[in-house]
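Progress report, Aim 2. The chain analyzed during this reporting quarter is listed below.
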Amino acid sequence: MRKFLHKTALKTIGLALAFAAAGTAVTAAAPDQGFVEKILRENRYFIEFSNVNVSNFGSPENEKALKDANQHNFNANLYYLESNYVDAFKEIRLSQEILLDLLYDVLQKRYIEDARALLDLNAPVIIQSKDKKSAHFLQLGYRDVEVARQFRDMGYNYNRFLYSSKIRYYIDGIKRARRAKRFAFLSLIESKTPIEDKAEYTTQTWDDAINKDDREKIRDYERVKNSMVNQMNRKLYTDGMNFFLHHDDNYGLISGQKKSLLKDAFKELQTKRPEKKALVPDYPKKDQPEPAKPENKKPAEPAKK
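Predicted structure tokens for the chain:
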């Protein structure tokens, strides 16, 4: 019985060591071409998405961070073209590490706070008007603000080594905050629309239903913008928070008041590779000597006659 238990224990230990060795081998494997190509596409989407946010609302610190992330992404593409997949992967990691802090900062300071401010701006008038439809839009907006906050917390508390997963949580939070701002504008428009102009109170004949005009084909972006322009021209409310800047951003557009940051960033890209220390073959890698610093020798004095 003892021999049987001893053999079983040895087999268990052997299997555990084998799995550990296999896991180490998989972890230490260098990234291949297919993997690097996939994360390059993914990182390009992250940067283009961040470009809209930073171009519309970014601070000078946010603009610098996006340019640095774009530079690392450019370096990764150069290394990929040179078939240097290890250095390409390292540059992508550096780029995503910058994007992590950038998207968290923009989500918290510009999207969640601005969405809540827009909803609070309209809440007193809507609650007082007792308009059920506009109050429902307001409720949906507050719900999406809370969901955006939850996405922010999930991304912040996610595994600190999975950069792309954390970034995707922040992107989902920004999308929910944008939708909350859309609901804020819809609730404002609905509360200021006279009852006789609302669709559910207008009479429609059979001929009107068949012969619909071009107003039915207008996109939501243009319909909401036209309604806000019309109501502000009638002085039903004032633009207290630069509504049209938020409206353009809600649909993933860079506002006409701003310009794309990446257009200027691409002009400033540098093709110089980061310098690497030359390895001395006589020493192991971990025992490489530090390169000797050149001495500043003073020029020899001329001989006295």
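Residues 85-129 form the longest helix (45 residues). Residues 29-273 form one domain. These observations will guide the mutagenesis work planned for the next reporting period.
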